[in-house]
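User: Okay, second chain of the day. Same drill as before: sequence in, structure tokens out.
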Amino acid sequence: MNRRAIHETVLGAALLAGFVCVWQLQEKVDAERATLQLDSDELTMRSPAVMKRLSLEYAPLMGAMYWTRAVQYFGGKHYAHDQNYDQLWPLLDIATTLDPNLIVAYHFGATFLSDAPPRGAGQPDQAVVLLERGIKANPEHWRFYQDLGNVYYFDKKDYSNASWAFEVGSKLPGTPPFMKIMAAKIAAEGESLETSYALWLDLYQTATNKDVRKNADDHLRLVKMEMDLRALNQIADAYEKQTKQRATRISEMAHAGLLSGQPVDPEGYPYVLGQLGRAEPNPKSPLREEWLKGKK
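Assistant: Same drill. Structure tokens below.
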């Protein structure tokens, strides 16, 4: 092969490699452009009032469409473990402005907003705004007061307003006795494991959305475990008072007649005593990691 042929071969290979690189770069640019376009689409119409004027008689249909986009947006972020939910509130704002009677958007939208990361956006203040809007537009819907009480109780730790929300909601027609009971319980106890368990249990029993129901079930397991640990620590204190030494194993308390058998957590793993003789979840329990997060 002469020098010219070699040169042409090398040049051809270089051009081919260059085309491949350019194609790959273009693919990346197109992907980035698609992402930016999606974000741009979400941000194009951030004014709910403008959207409502433009939608005319189709406003409820557009509201449902924006609610669907909010669900898709939240689901996509959650699936990708992306905790930047900056467009969630604007989408919910538009959806509920277009259709003030879109009950599902208030109910589940507040859950999406209020739940702490990684389950939700960690924006309880926006959840309160959304629910107050829902109450104003749908004053007969007592469940909004339940949702509002839950946000105040679990996410804002504002027990006075939580009790108020349950109390006001309890006066609406068709409201179950549970609302008035929780209003009194929160007013008397503030935060307590028993109150938390009762609230999560009611949410679990009444939720129709599988994700909300799963979230409530997860919290129920954690609260039940905390109640078990508290009881075990009380027994460990009694054992120490009786024997003048701290137990190092659960079995010691059972042998002393203070326990009947080996207690297990909601996942079926036996509880253990830590280095300081305090009850802890089993290191092998799936609940231990969540429990440790709550201790930070």
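The first helix runs from residue 3 to 44.

User: Thanks, on to the next one.
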